[in-house]
Structure formats: C-alpha cells, structure tokens
C-alpha cells in the first residue's frame, strides 16, 4: 500500500479488512498523517485488536450492524471515539453531518480514502462518494480499494486467476489488470459486477472444502 506523508486519511474497514488496516494506520501515523478510521463489524464479538487500532488513529468510529450488549468490548474507549449502530456508509454520513460529535479529521480535509472489506462494502463506499457523501468530501481526494480477487499461483502475473476488469469512469474503456501485482486499485475504475461474478464462481468449491474439513476434523 502506498503510504503518503502529512495527509488527512480516512480508512474504512469491514470485518477481516480491519486486520490489514490497523497496520496501514500505524504506517500512516509514522509519516505524520491524521488518521480517521471507520471500523465496521456485522456482530459485536467480531471486534479485535482495539488497542492497536486506537494507538494508530486520531479518531475511530466503531460501526456494528446490531446493537452491542452492555458487556461487549465493542465500545468507544476514548473521548473522541464513537459507536454507531448501522452499516459503515451510514456511519460515515453520520460523522460527516456532525451527528457523532467532534470531528478531529473533517471529511472535507481528507485527501485519501482506503477501503478494505467485502466487495459489496467497498462498492457501497464507492457509490456513496458520488451520492450521499459527496457534499462533505474534498473533490480532489484519492479513493483506493483493496481488491479481493480470486488468486491461485501467488507468483505475480503467471496464472491469470486474479484478473480484474477496470472501466475508465470518463471514457468507458475496459482494461484488465492483475490483482496479484497490486491489490490496491482505484475505487472508481473497478468493475464491481465483474468482481462479484468472479467471487461467486468459487463459492461452490469453497463450501465443499468447508464441508470436507468439517468431516475430517470430526
């Protein structure tokens, strides 16, 4: 991941995407960046590495699809942090509108957005940038997604299992890239339907593998 110097950066993590983003956040802080982090989870018990996330951020918005129970670890532990019940785009909008209190990293100052999570979550963030979030964003910001294409050889541009279609947002021209060479790709260029179709091709094999492992482990 390209790590800039002295920028305001917004990180958007969904589920296991947070396992990657907290180390990116640490690298950003080491280069004097201001880091706003939206950490999204489906269930409260999915949260992990809270200490590391807090240590590498200026402000965290914890987001969960369902309300955490009173004894849940998923809660704001610093005065500047907040908890939002809903999806991650709704959390970003609530923050931008000032409904979550203090904005240590205002959205209109953010020069870079990095999203890592499911293909549906990253697609939703990409669309929201041009709709509900558009009035609050710096029009010159860079938006990056970490593309979770199917991969096989892990040898950099050999087997072509990881090919990802891009569509130029201005001309509509289609190109194809190797995701194994660089998973970080421009949000506005990724063909999300193509990615969803590719991931769905593997779903039956993944389910069969899980059943076989369950059988063996018994």
Summarize the structure in words.
With 218 residues, the chain is α/β, with parallel strands linked by helices. The protein has helices at 18-30, 50-55, 88-96, 119-128, 192-201, 203-217; strands at 8-14, 34-41, 59-64, 82-85, 112-116, 142-146, 163-167, 174-178, 184-186. The protein is built from 6 helices and 9 strands, in the order βαβαββαβαββββαα. The strands form 2 sheets. The chain has a 7-stranded mixed β-sheet, sandwiched between helices. A two-stranded antiparallel sheet has the order 7-8. α4 links the parallel β5 (112-116) and β6 (142-146). The longest helix has 15 residues, at 203-217. The radius of gyration is 18 Å and the shape is globular.
Q: If you compute it from the alpha carbons, what radius of gyration comes out, rounded to the nearest whole angstrom?
A: 18 Å
Poorly predicted runs: none
The helix/strand series, from N terminus to C terminus, equals EHEHEEHEHEEEEHH
Report the strand count: 9
Tell me the fraction of residues in β-strands, as a range.
15-25%
* Biggest beta sheet summary: 7 strands, mixed
Shape: globular
Our count of helices gives 6
